[in-house]
Design brief:
87 residues, alpha+beta, 5 strands, single chain, Ubiquitin-like (UB roll)
Length: 87
C-alpha cells in the first residue's frame, strides 16, 4: 500500500523540475528521504536533472531539516532545496 505525500521544490530544484509542488503516491518500498530522491530521479528527465547530485540537496520533513537516511515515517510534506548560503 502506498501513501500520498506533498512534495515541495525550491530554488533551482523547482526550476529544473518545472513546478513548485505536487502530490506524489510513494510506494511502500520507499522508506527514507534518500530513497525518495532516488525514486523521484527515476520519474523523468527533469527529475533526473534535479536530483543528479543528491549530496547537495537538502530536505525537510514537515518543516524540520532532515538527513537522507531519515525515515519518511508519518510525514505529510517533504521539501527539497539547495544548500542555503549566508551573507
Amino acid at each position: 500500500m502506498s501513501k500520498i505525500l506533498k512534495v515541495r521544490y525550491f530554488a533551482w530544484v523547482r526550476e529544473r523540475i518545472g513546478k513548485p509542488d505536487e502530490d506524489i503516491e510513494v510506494p511502500d518500498i520507499v522508506v527514507t528521504v534518500g530513497e525518495l530522491m532516488t525514486y523521484l530521479a527515476a520519474r523523468g528527465e527533469e527529475y533526473a536533472h534535479a536530483f543528479e547530485n543528491p549530496k547537495v540537496i537538502r530536505a525537510a520533513i514537515d518543516k524540520a531539516h532532515v538527513k537522507p537516511q531519515t525515515p519518511l515515517g508519518g510525514a505529510t510534506e517533504i521539501a527539497f532545496f539547495p544548500p542555503m548560503t549566508g551573507g
